[in-house]
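User: Design a sequence. Structure:
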């Protein structure tokens, strides 16, 4: 009888324990609902190695108490939280870099998108990554098609300026992405860099689209 009771207890305990991932490790989150702040604490991203996990937790505690803490980072600088919402978080990691965490509705759960922006205007650049609710990275090309140079320009038919000429003016360019904290839209902006001459820049401005807007349709971003 005692043996049977112990068996029932063991089965009950096992039923409420979180499932383990491959290798025996407990995944970050098994449920369908996660929060951006949880991702900030547990995200396995190299960029967050500048902040100890305990520091990230303390930053959230200070933020919850309406006190912005300039937390010391591994670069001997300071980091601070800018925005914390259930589905969006933005943190300034260094003087020239920020990380955005945005949760997107996906299938029956959520998809985590991170945007790491580094550099100051006009020469910044972005790195976009996607993770499932267990913070396992998924190739970004499944969710967004990165813009090409031609996408940022609208050249009217018959114009004396051609796309080939614009490509010659911009042999190198970068793109800055920003997520909307209030929706599931995403904006991309071309950064022409400091090496473009004034004359070339004046021509580029005539045809340049200031921003590209992407909309999340539940499966991927469309422009």
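Assistant: Done.
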């Amino acid at each position: 009888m005692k043996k049977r009771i112990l068996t029932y207890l063991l089965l009950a305990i096992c039923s409420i324990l979180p499932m383990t991932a491959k290798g025996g490790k407990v995944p970050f989150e098994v449920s369908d609902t996660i929060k951006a702040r949880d991702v900030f604490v547990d995200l396995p991203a190299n960029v967050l190695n500048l902040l100890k996990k305990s520091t990230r937790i303390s930053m959230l505690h200070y933020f919850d108490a309406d006190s912005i803490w300039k937390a010391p980072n591994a670069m001997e600088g300071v980091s601070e939280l800018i925005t914390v919402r259930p589905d969006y978080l933005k943190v300034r990691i260094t003087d020239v870099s920020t990380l955005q965490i945005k949760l997107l509705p996906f299938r029956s759960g959520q998809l985590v998108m991170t945007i790491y922006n580094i550099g100051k205007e006009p020469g910044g650049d972005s790195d976009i990554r996607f993770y499932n609710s267990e913070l396992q990275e998924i190739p970004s090309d499944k969710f967004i098609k990165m813009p090409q140079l031609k996408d940022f320009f609208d050249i009217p038919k018959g114009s004396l300026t051609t796309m080939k000429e614009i490509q010659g003016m911009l042999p190198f360019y970068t793109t800055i992405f920003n997520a909307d904290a209030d929706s599931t839209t995403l904006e991309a902006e071309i950064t022409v860099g400091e090496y473009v001459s004034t004359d070339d820049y004046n021509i580029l401005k005539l045809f340049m689209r200031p921003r590209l807007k992407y909309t999340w349709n539940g499966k991927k971003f469309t422009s």
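The chain has one domain: 20-222. Residues 114 and 122 are 21 Å apart (CA to CA).
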